[in-house]
């Protein structure tokens, strides 16, 4: 009969019924009894091991050993399980003992630790487990969970380096089913541990980008599990969160657990000297069926279980030793005895050891094998293959024959050079073509070769006579010949071909056959054609550039003659020096001007067009003439430059230029001036030289609307004012301010006439900009009188 209180359950808002409380207490008590029973079952094997030790030492029976264990535990104040773990640790000499000797291992999870009892309990659980699934649960419960881990995966390595999930704990069964098999080549933490043969610690799986069981977050530790020098699986431990670098003792603990897992995954192998060892017998029969030299090797293990050498168990019937020794001297010897130079990084022993440990097959088309012959190293090239078959290794090599090597080199040379050889028998008509020749003719392999007599029918019509001339030279006159022609393939494609052939004759001069080679020179032909066209275009470009430079030079010389006589007007002396660039291709757009206006004022200007060539020269003409016309309006220098900026923007092909413009009034000896991005004039007075202030003014053509600042300077008798372009001072390796300072120093040191001053400045200029140079100098005369009104 069902209790109605239990069936109905507690009221939503009322107190819990007494029956439910009693049921919950019963469930909790039963759970505690189950946990206690599980702990007792896990520790039973450990206690039995300790009782066995007491039976051996005390020479007593099982019952007496149990009473002694309880009595000793009571005297020590510990539980029988803890005492059993201490007894086993003191007696055993294994990796687990080395780990538990530290007694307490700190982990990344605060407050958690792993005791010797837990490690020995995990060991007993692993040894007693009948399958990998129970092994994984035991490792997680007794060793990994105290370290903060939440999941364990136990992988078994296949002969093809694949991974199979043989046991797991703390992982969803559906996810485990998806990860049941990992094929070779998929990079996972377990794969990396297997291939690199060491523990892989991954602090944060999400940052590593590696896929793995148990999600994509948290920390991972993948420890290779091996026995007898062979890796047979991987123990992977999962943490739910990123982990810090683990201390060495934690690493040693997990390595000890992986070693226990390896013993559980694989049963003890049969002795190597057993006559019934099926693996070696099957591999021996396989090696004897090969046409290449083969060795069957079995590992020799050291005291610590690592591979120290390999024993040559069998050599097959086709065995060829690189040193020329018979197989009987090799069989039965160790690898280092037979081939002492196999040791070393990247040598044969390391390759064999890696294949044996990981199961990953090694294959290379060409490696160097070195052996001692009368204490002299002999190196040969060979194709090498190494594979693991259960507990043995098969090594197969093929010594590279000199004839085969030369044939391969010839084949590669023909392929790279697009060359195909042929031979034609005159008596039988048999034709032999190399493989490359079919490709040159656009024919499939196995198609009927084209005889020389039919070659004219496969070439361009314009080249038929050249091919017939070649055939006459070969077949009638018995002389070697060559020809170039256009071969028409069956698909209509045309290739440029060169043929070189020679007749084969006997002692009596009879023709036995013809041999020779075809070469595809299409790429060379089109390269030469493109080069020829480029040379033609280059010659035309050079001719056009030279013509433009000649016209620019002529235009420049017509407008701006290099030698200009000095001008004397109203007591003002004006001298000009213009020095064109030495290179025609750098003809610039420098200009100068000095004219007397109807108002009896004198306009002086200097400018520089950006760029070189004919465009710069024509732009110079436009701006110079435009400034002359603007000067007739009576406007000031600033206004004239504003209008000249509009000319540069609108009436030219959008050129850029710098300029400085001045108006000198002879009655007042006042010079009004303005500049557009140009270097300010230089004033030489009483043995000193200085640049005028840099007025505001952007270069011509830069913006649509621009205004230019004006300034005035009162000139005194014997003053010299210099207007110049940057070709006078500019150097590529020196700032422009330093160049101006050098000009001022040279000008201040000079004593003499205006013409001598300009000549001196040109002679001492160290400019290297390959640009035109223009200098305009004005000097106020001593005692000059103003012009009549």
From TrEMBL:
<dbReference type="InterPro" id="IPR001932">
    <property type="entry name" value="PPM-type_phosphatase-like_dom"/>
</dbReference>
<dbReference type="Pfam" id="PF08447">
    <property type="entry name" value="PAS_3"/>
</dbReference>
<protein>
    <recommendedName>
        <fullName>Antitermination regulator</fullName>
    </recommendedName>
</protein>
<dbReference type="GO" id="GO:0016791">
    <property type="term" value="F:phosphatase activity"/>
</dbReference>
<dbReference type="InterPro" id="IPR000014">
    <property type="entry name" value="PAS"/>
</dbReference>
<feature type="domain" description="PAC">
    <location>
        <begin position="481"/>
        <end position="533"/>
    </location>
</feature>
<dbReference type="GO" id="GO:0003723">
    <property type="term" value="F:RNA binding"/>
</dbReference>
<feature type="domain" description="ANTAR">
    <location>
        <begin position="27"/>
        <end position="88"/>
    </location>
</feature>
<dbReference type="InterPro" id="IPR029016">
    <property type="entry name" value="GAF-like_dom_sf"/>
</dbReference>
<keyword id="KW-0804">Transcription</keyword>
<dbReference type="InterPro" id="IPR000700">
    <property type="entry name" value="PAS-assoc_C"/>
</dbReference>
<dbReference type="InterPro" id="IPR013655">
    <property type="entry name" value="PAS_fold_3"/>
</dbReference>
<dbReference type="InterPro" id="IPR035965">
    <property type="entry name" value="PAS-like_dom_sf"/>
</dbReference>
<dbReference type="Pfam" id="PF03861">
    <property type="entry name" value="ANTAR"/>
</dbReference>
<dbReference type="InterPro" id="IPR011006">
    <property type="entry name" value="CheY-like_superfamily"/>
</dbReference>
<dbReference type="InterPro" id="IPR036457">
    <property type="entry name" value="PPM-type-like_dom_sf"/>
</dbReference>
<dbReference type="InterPro" id="IPR005561">
    <property type="entry name" value="ANTAR"/>
</dbReference>
<keyword id="KW-0378">Hydrolase</keyword>
<keyword id="KW-0805">Transcription regulation</keyword>
<dbReference type="Pfam" id="PF07228">
    <property type="entry name" value="SpoIIE"/>
</dbReference>
<dbReference type="InterPro" id="IPR036388">
    <property type="entry name" value="WH-like_DNA-bd_sf"/>
</dbReference>
<dbReference type="InterPro" id="IPR052016">
    <property type="entry name" value="Bact_Sigma-Reg"/>
</dbReference>
């Amino acid at each position: 009969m069902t209790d109605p209180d239990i069936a109905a359950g507690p009221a939503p808002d009322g107190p819990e019924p007494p029956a439910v409380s009693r049921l919950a207490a019963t469930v909790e008590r039963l759970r505690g009894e189950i946990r206690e029973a599980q702990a007792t079952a896990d520790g039973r094997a450990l206690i039995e091991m300790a009782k066995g030790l007491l039976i051996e030492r005390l020479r007593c029976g099982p019952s007496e050993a149990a009473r002694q264990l309880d009595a000793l535990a009571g005297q020590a104040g510990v539980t029988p399980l803890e005492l059993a773990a201490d007894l086993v640790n003191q007696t055993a000499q294994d990796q687990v003992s080395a780990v538990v000797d530290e007694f307490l291992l700190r982990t990344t999870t605060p407050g958690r630790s792993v005791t010797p009892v837990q490690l020995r309990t995990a060991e007993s659980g692993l040894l007693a487990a009948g399958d990998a699934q129970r092994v994984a649960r035991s490792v997680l419960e007794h060793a990994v969970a105290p370290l903060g881990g939440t999941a364990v995966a136990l992988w078994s390595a296949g002969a093809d380096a694949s991974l199979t999930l043989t046991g797991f704990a703390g992982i969803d069964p559906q996810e485990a089913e998806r990860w049941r098999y990992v094929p070779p080549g998929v990079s996972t933490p377990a794969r990396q541990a297997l291939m690199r043969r060491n523990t892989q610690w991954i602090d944060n799986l999400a940052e590593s980008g590696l896929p793995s069981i148990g999600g994509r977050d948290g920390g991972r530790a993948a420890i290779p599990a091996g026995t007898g020098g062979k890796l047979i699986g991987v123990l992977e431990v999962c943490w739910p969160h990123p982990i810090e670098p683990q201390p060495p003792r934690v690493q040693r603990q997990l390595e000890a657990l992986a070693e226990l897992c390896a013993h559980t995954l694989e049963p003890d192998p049969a002795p190597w000297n057993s006559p019934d060892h099926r693996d070696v017998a099957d591999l021996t029969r396989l090696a004897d069926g090969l046409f290449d030299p083969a060795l069957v090797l079995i590992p020799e293990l050291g005291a610590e279980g690592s591979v120290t050498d390999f024993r040559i168990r069998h050599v097959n019937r086709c065995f060829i030793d690189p040193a020329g020794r018979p197989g009987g001297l090799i069989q039965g010897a160790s690898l280092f005895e037979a081939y002492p130079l196999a040791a070393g990084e990247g040598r044969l022993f390391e390759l064999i050891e890696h294949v044996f440990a990981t199961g990953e097959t090694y294959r290379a088309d060409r490696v160097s094998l070195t052996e001692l012959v009368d204490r002299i190293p002999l190196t040969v090239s060979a194709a090498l293959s190494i594979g693991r078959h259960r507990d043995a290794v098969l090594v197969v090599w093929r010594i590279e024959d000199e004839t085969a090597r030369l044939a391969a080199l010839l084949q590669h040379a023909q392929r790279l050079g697009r060359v195909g050889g042929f031979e034609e028998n005159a008596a039988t008509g048999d034709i032999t073509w190399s493989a490359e020749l079919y490709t040159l003719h656009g024919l499939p392999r196995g198609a009927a070769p084209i005889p020389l007599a039919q070659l004219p029918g496969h070439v361009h019509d314009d080249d038929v006579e050249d091919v017939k001339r070649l055939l006459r030279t070969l077949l009638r006159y018995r002389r070697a010949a060559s020809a170039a022609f256009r071969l028409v393939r069956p698909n209509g494609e045309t290739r440029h071909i060169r043929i070189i052939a020679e007749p084969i004759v006997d002692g009596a001069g009879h023709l036995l056959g013809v041999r020779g080679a075809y070469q595809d020179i299409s790429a060379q032909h089109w390269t030469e054609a493109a080069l020829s066209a480029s040379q033609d275009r280059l010659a035309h470009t050079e001719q056009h550039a030279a013509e433009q430079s000649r016209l620019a030079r002529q235009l420049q010389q017509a407008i701006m003659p290099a030698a200009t006589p000095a001008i004397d007007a109203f007591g003002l002396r004006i001298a000009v020096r213009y020095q064109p660039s030495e290179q025609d291709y750098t003809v610039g757009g420098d200009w100068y001007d000095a004219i007397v206006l109807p108002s009896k004022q004198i306009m002086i200007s200097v400018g520089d067009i950006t760029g070189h060539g004919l465009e710069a020269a024509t732009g110079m003409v436009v701006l110079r003439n435009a400034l002359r016309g603007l000067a007739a309006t009576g406007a000031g220098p600033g206004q004239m430059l504003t209008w000249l900026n509009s000319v540069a923007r609108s009436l030219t092909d959008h050129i850029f230029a710098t300029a400085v413009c001045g108006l000198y009034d002879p009655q007042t000896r006042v010079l009004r001036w303005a500049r557009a991005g140009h270097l300010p004039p230089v004033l030489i007075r009483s043995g000193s030289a200085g640049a005028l202030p840099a007025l505001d003014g952007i270069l011509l053509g830069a913006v649509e609307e621009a205004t230019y600042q004006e300034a005035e300077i009162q000139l005194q008798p014997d003053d010299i004012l210099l207007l110049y372009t940057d070709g006078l001072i500019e150097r590529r390796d020196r700032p422009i301010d330093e160049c101006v300072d050098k000009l001022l120093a040279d000008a201040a040191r000079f004593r003499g006439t205006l013409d001598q001053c300009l000549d001196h400045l040109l002679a001492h200029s160290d400019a290297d900009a390959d640009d035109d140079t223009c200098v305009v100098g004005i000097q106020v005369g001593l005692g000059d009188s103003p012009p009549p009104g």
